[in-house]
Description:
Blueprint: E1 6-7, E2 18-19, H1 22-31, H2 47-70, H3 72-83, E3 84-89, E4 96-97, E5 103-115, H4 125-136, H5 140-148, E6 158-164, H6 166-175, E7 182-192, H7 199-202, E8 205-207, E9 227-229, H8 232-236, H9 238-241, E10 246-252, E11 258-265, E12 272-275, H10 279-293, E13 298-303, E14 310-316, H11 322-325, H12 330-338, H13 347-350, H14 360-369, E15 379-381, E16 384-387, E17 396-399, E18 407-409, H15 411-417, H16 420-428, H17 439-449, H18 471-477, H19 489-496, H20 506-517, E19 522-523, E20 528-532, E21 538-541, E22 546-548, H21 554-569, E23 584-591, E24 600-608, E25 615-621, H22 627-645
Helix pairs in contact: 10-22, 14-17, 14-21, 15-21, 16-19
Amino acid sequence: MRNPFEVYTSTREGKNKRQLDWDESAADTQRGVEGVYDNERSAPKFWWLVAFVTLAVASLVGRLFYLQILHGGDFSVLSEDNRIRKQVVLAPRGKILDRNGDVLAENTASYNLIATPFDLPKAGLNGEVATLAAEFQFDAAAALAKIRATDRNSIQPVIIKQDLTEQQSILFETQGEDFVGFDIQKIPIRDYTQAREFSHLLGYTGLVSPGDLDNVKDPGSYDPNDFIGKLGIESVYENYLHGINGADLVEVDATGKLQDVLGEDRPTPGDTLVLNIDKGLQDQLYQGLQQAIGSQRGAAVAIDPRNGQVLALVSSPGFDTNLFAHGISEADYQKLLDDKTQPLFNRAIAGLYPPGSTSKLMTATAGLQEGVITENTVIVDRGVIRVANQYGGAGYLFHGWNPAGLGPMTVRSAIAMSSDIFFYEVAGGPPDGSWQGLGPDRLAGYFRKFGLGKPTGIDLPGEKGGLVPDPAWKMRYFHNDPLQGKWYLGDTYHMGIGQGDLLVTPLQVAEWTATVANGGVGYVPEVANRAVNQDGRTIWQNQPKVLVSNIASPGVFKIVQEGMRETVVSGTARALSTLPITSAGKTGTSQFDGSDPLKTHAWFTAYAPYENPQIAITVLVEAGGEGNATAEPIVKDALLWWAQNRYKKSQN
Length: 652
């Protein structure tokens, strides 16, 4: 009998036959028809399916072998790194104190909105940034550009918005789950107690940028979001003020949100920097400049002649350094740049001005030391000197400040009354050539002995050295033009009274005043005194360094000192005679606009006590008019404050 589970597709037995599926066979047995034939159907080919499955299995096995066997350890570490991270904790900067322990710069908490590129969503990022930008007022396009410029696999935070308020920080925390990859970072930033008064002295901090780490001792210790001193003392003493950053080992979830703190390495604050600056004196001079000149410009410097310690250094107007510490906006920065009073410019160490009659102290020293004059030499001040024109025609007139003349002058009275005529002749000799003055080269040489023409070396960035002109310089300046480059007697006259091309900084005037007060020895001006670590141990101490010496004999300096004392007793600075301490001084009025002789800078420089100098103060008021009318009262008030608060004497 024929097998019901076998179908025959040919009339020939056993050829091209295949076994039916069970359901096909069952159907056939019910039909009652013998010899079912399927001449059209043929057996399907399954070889391609088998090959595909075999290849897929082989690929899967190969990939598993690569992931689990060859690189299993690496991927395990990577996965762990994405779950367990090291978060840098920025170290607070060291405090900056004045000489009496008053705080000038400390730290306060600030909040930054940050993004971790690895945690950011691949979809919906633009919407998150737009929402945050509207809430916290920042440029969404700029933030997106900053994010896209970073490696999306990086776990290094990118600062999106600096200096959020504490209220904004709390608001974000309540909505943080909606912003995947974003977080709030709490950091310490600078807080300057009297920002404008100390702006040019202390400088400011800012985020690290390319090139900032060139001069630090350990560049690797800085985080990309770290802060660094950008200007002033903050910059010069960065290696002491910057602490040692710490780190927290934390566990985060898949969105980068903190789950647990696994370990802590606390940061070490920077060292405390103690300055030579006296905050009270700085306040006094700053307020004096503000009251005297309003929105005009000026500078003040006070030095201890005995060691070069800088007691005060003011440049006016100042600016709010806290703007920089908190991350200054482009609008605020541009406003500072556009300000015609140039608040960012440190006039005390970088402003170059003709010193006017304050330089007569150096001319007198040179004349006495070189034997051009003695303490008894008399020159009659008739108010004007006439110099003949060597090319014919009318001569040239060189006027003194008093058209009527001051009469017979010795070196002491010439200093006291600021006789231009006397110092014209000491510098260049009388027009008739009856005796020889110093001449330009010897005069320039003494100016350089006092340290002019180069920076003093103060521990502040940006100091200028000024200019000491001489015949060789003038010829170079005019490219060897025989007419324009020629040095005339009038050039020497002008240099002898601090006019012409002679340019100095207020710091240099204070420095030569201190040198005269100290009998001919001048010290490098130093702002910082010492650095103290967290244990209270002094790890660095500034030592006095001689800047100038061997300029002239002690007897010469004694005569110049007596002339400065006479200035206060009976000369152009008699207002200082009412102080409760003795003092010596010198007025100065320098022209800065050749087209208008009435446009003048006002100078006054002084030291006290006269018998035992402990402080020298110089004040410049730009376009302030007469030195004794504008600058002298500021110095007087500062010396009165110093006498009452530091020298422990009261006014009678």
